[in-house]
């Protein structure tokens, strides 16, 4: 076993090295800095212990000695330890004290390089750091402790790349102007490079501090030099953004929003990706655990007599997955359904069915189960229907309505959904510290289970927990549960799908 000190690159997992990617997917303990992108953390195995030991300027931080001790402790337990550092470990990465501690403790370690934001940020903003005319040299510096820098020498270098300079932007400008740098020298500030939240400000030394708010800029890379002018000539024409000196690039609609996703553990990642593409930070709080039913007997009997049914109704992707897995377990495939029509509720259920090589015969409008009976394509009287569903807490209203229309509905347990035992630590911490902007609910059961988990942890959570959090629902039935258990709904999707819920949240952010 080793401690791997790995450079996580500038942001998105796409900029990891192949070796870093492979090691993270095999890690047993992941100790990471505050600015590591969520897409990288998600590469770790499900059973990997993830520990944030972030150091952020101006905020309470874990001491370096505590980090050193933790690395040694986990190594001595025989674990493969991944120490993730933003950018490259040896470029302002504070790797030296950790390596020295590991050597002293006799711990084997390996350093894996990463792409530093000092190189990636200007590149992704189409700003070259060198040019045969404008920049024959560049210097990388940190402005964390601005007083120790030799500004007379620094000011003479053609291109400057400055990290940790947001809060000292005014002083940086002052020092450069004081040491004869021209007021019209171009400046670029790139915030959150290599992520959907990336923003770029273009100006010059005389104006940049007036046009930005220092406390809003971190984390950023500041570039000073004539090469910034080359940006206008190095963008593909269709992607060019005309900028005045005070302009900034358009940002993703959910940038700076943190969204708590409360679907089941196996399903949340798809929704999370939709939200992340719109710039959101996503924290997953599984509120459902999907498992096999207590007995397969009824489902197996239904499969054995499948030819006696007129219709098969599937109302969720879980129903599709478990039904067809059991069908295969009994030695059958989709050909066994040759004489049976299939009705599904929702686009996602229909898409899941298509992966099994089948197209549904009927999808009700509005993507809700109640719409299924009202719009059924033929008379239900005398029809025999197989309905694989969740074992407990399912759609009693749907079954009642089908029966009232004269159908014979055979309900069979295909899977079970239950409440997790605990709130994941990351979600609990975010709720405790008021870091959540939006909570999403995609079913009534997630609302119920969320309330149960909050109740079980009420001694750890603030009383006004939901006061300033947007409650977002996927549709009317879920909204009804929100009103009943949480007292309100702030956002309801017009189209009752995850895409529809994402669009509804974006609209809420736009008008808020």
TrEMBL record:
Keyword Lipoprotein: no
Gene Ontology BP annotations: methylation; siroheme biosynthetic process
Keyword Cytoplasm among record annotations: no
Main enzyme class: transferase
PROSITE patterns: SUMT_1 (PS00839), SUMT_2 (PS00840)
Alphabetically ordered keywords of this record: Lyase, Methyltransferase, Porphyrin biosynthesis, S-adenosyl-L-methionine, Transferase
Pathway(s) where this gene product acts: Porphyrin-containing compound metabolism
EC number, UniProt record: 2.1.1.107
Pfam families referenced in this protein's UniProt entry, alphabetically: HEM4, TP_methylase
Tetrapyrrole biosynthesis uroporphyrinogen III synthase domain sequence ranges: 270-502
Positions of the Tetrapyrrole methylase domain: 2-208
MF terms in GO: uroporphyrin-III C-methyltransferase activity; uroporphyrinogen-III synthase activity
Function, as annotated: It is a step in the biosynthesis of both cobalamin (vitamin B12) and siroheme.
Family: Belongs to the precorrin methyltransferase family.
Name the record gives this protein: uroporphyrinogen-III C-methyltransferase
Organism, as annotated: Trichodesmium erythraeum (strain IMS101)
Highest classification ranks of the organism: Bacteria, Bacillati, Cyanobacteriota, Cyanophyceae, Oscillatoriophycideae
């Amino acid at each position: 076993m080793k401690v791997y000190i790995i450079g996580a690159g500038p942001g998105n997992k796409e900029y990891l090295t192949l070796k870093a990617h492979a090691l993270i997917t095999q890690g047993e303990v992941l100790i990471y800095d505050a600015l590591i992108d969520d897409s990288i953390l998600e590469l770790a195995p499900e059973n990997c212990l993830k520990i944030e030991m972030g150091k952020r300027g101006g905020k309470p931080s874990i001491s370096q000695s505590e980090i050193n001790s933790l690395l040694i402790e986990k190594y001595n337990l025989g674990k493969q330890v991944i120490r993730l550092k933003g950018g490259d470990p040896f470029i302002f990465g504070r790797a030296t004290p950790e390596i020295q501690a590991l050597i002293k403790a006799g711990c084997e370690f390996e350093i894996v390089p990463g792409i530093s934001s000092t190189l990636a940020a200007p590149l992704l903003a189409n700003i070259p750091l060198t040019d045969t005319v404008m920049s024959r040299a560049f210097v990388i510096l940190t402005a964390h402790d601005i007083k120790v820098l030799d500004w007379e020498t620094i000011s003479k270098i053609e291109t400057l790349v400055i990290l940790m300079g947001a809060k000292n932007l005014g002083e940086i400008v002052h020092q450069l102007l004081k040491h004869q740098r021209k007021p019209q020298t171009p400046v670029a500030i790139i915030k959150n490079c290599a992520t959907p939240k990336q923003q770029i400000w273009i100006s010059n030394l005389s104006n940049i501090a007036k046009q930005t708010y220092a406390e809003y800029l971190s984390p950023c890379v500041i570039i000073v030099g004539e090469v910034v002018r080359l940006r206008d000539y190095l963008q593909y024409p269709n992607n060019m953004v005309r900028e005045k000196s005070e302009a900034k690039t358009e940002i993703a609609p959910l940038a700076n929003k943190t969204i708590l996703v409360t679907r089941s553990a196996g399903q949340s990642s798809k929704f999370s990706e939709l939200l992340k593409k719109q710039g959101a930070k996503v924290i997953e709080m599984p509120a459902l655990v999907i498992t096999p039913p207590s007995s397969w007997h009824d489902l197996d009997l239904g499969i054995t007599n499948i030819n006696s049914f007129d219709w098969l109704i599937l109302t969720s992707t879980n129903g599709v997955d478990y039904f067809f897995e059991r069908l295969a377990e009994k030695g059958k495939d989709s050909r066994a359904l040759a004489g049976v029509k299939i009705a599904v509720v929702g686009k996602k259920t229909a898409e899941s069915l298509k992966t099994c090589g089948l197209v549904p015969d009927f999808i009700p409008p509005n993507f809700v189960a109640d719409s299924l009976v009202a719009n059924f394509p033929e008379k239900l009287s005398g029809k025999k229907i197989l309905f694989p569903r969740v074992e407990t807490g399912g759609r009693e209203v749907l079954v009642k309505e089908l029966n009232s229309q004269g159908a014979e509905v055979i309900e069979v347990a295909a899977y079970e959904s239950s409440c997790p035992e605990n709130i994941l630590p990351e979600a609990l911490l975010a709720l405790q510290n008021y870091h959540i902007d939006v909570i999403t609910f995609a079913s009534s059961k997630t609302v119920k289970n969320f309330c149960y988990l909050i109740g079980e942890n009420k001694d750890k959570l603030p009383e006004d927990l939901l006061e300033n959090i947007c409650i977002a629902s996927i549709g009317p039935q879920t909204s009804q549960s929100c009103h009943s258990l949480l007292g309100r709904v702030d956002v309801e999707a017009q189209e009752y799908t995850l895409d529809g819920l994402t669009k509804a949240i974006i609209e809420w952010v736009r008008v808020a």
